Amino acid sequence: MKSSHLITKEEILKLYKPIDSKAHKGTQGHAVIIAGSYGKIGAAVLASKSCLKSGCGLVTTFIPKCGYQILQISIPEVMTVTDENTNFITNIHLPLIPQAVGIGPGIGKELGTQKALFEFLRVNKAPLVLDADALNIISENLSWLELVPEDTILTPHPKELERLIGKWNSEAEKFQKTIAFSEKYKVIIVMKGAPTFIINRTSVYENTTGNAALATAGSGDTLTGILTSLLAQGYEPKYASKIGVYLHGLTADLALPKTGYESFTASTIIKYLGKAFLELEN
Ligand SMILES: NC(=O)C1=CN([C@@H]2O[C@H](COP(=O)(O)OP(=O)(O)OC[C@H]3O[C@@H](n4cnc5c(N)ncnc54)[C@H](OP(=O)(O)O)[C@@H]3O)[C@@H](O)[C@H]2O)[C@@H](O)CC1
Ligand SMILES: Nc1ncnc2c1ncn2[C@@H]1O[C@H](COP(=O)(O)OP(=O)(O)O)[C@@H](O)[C@H]1O
Ligand SMILES: [Mg+2]
Q: ipTM more than 0.90?
């Protein structure tokens, strides 16, 4: 297997940019989260809340109509734009030019959603995070990756990775195929797992934070929100991916003594984001 570089606190401290005292919401980036379908609006809530709580100034979330009240009541700080359709996304229209977009958590694979994703990828110019069902749809339409901005961040868990690159027979082959995929499509792959690796062309980075408390529904959805927020704030994708993965894992390391493994949930990740960022302040 190819040797990897460790993502350590020392490295993250060099990449992290503290918030300027003259900052206002307009300078902190406007992020868009496109997520959710009937029964999975929670994915949109988790991604949007973690996005907002990772420092970007404004968050707009695009959801099917059924999620409108849920989202507005769960997170009043987040603006909401709804699809014409009730239960799933069919036509992505944004009344703004976003600084970054995260798309995929909980969107499902309805034909209408597949078409909406293709149309969105055709017109989108903003730095992008692709997760969950966006990856599952793209796995069956790999040529769509030619439409995405260079250095788009893909965040597959092992099953989503298999759908993208095909089966592997060994760890070495998994890395070899993921590297080849990253090179071919000029994308950054956050290979989620225990630990998470980031593959950027032939470079492999291994995260040093995180623990099994993260093995809980929605923890990947929060990572999508964090990464999208960092991109919206102007971090280059190669740095946003490292900082985001590091902070996401750090929330679990900081929370574990208080929550134990069992009671830790994706909402705990969001709760501990503040403490994780404060670790970068010294
Ligand atoms: N509250 C909400 O609204 C939530 C909404 N959510 C949304 O739901 C949608 C479906 O997402 P999903 O990931 O559950 O389904 P899917 O892609 O079929 O993968 C499941 C299979 O993958 C595997 N697998 C996964 N991790 C693995 C690992 N570490 N290591 C090894 N294998 C691993 C495992 O396969 P197995 O081992 O069982 O063969 C498992 O059965 C998606 O849009 C998501 O955003 C969720 O975020 C939850 C909260
Ligand atoms: N045992 C573990 N140790 C460290 N991190 C883990 C562990 N289990 C899960 N994670 C992390 O939790 C997240 C799970 O993402 P994902 O499977 O997409 O969840 P969901 O789709 O439910 O939001 C990933 O970031 C993964 O690295
Ligand atoms: Mg996921």
A: yes
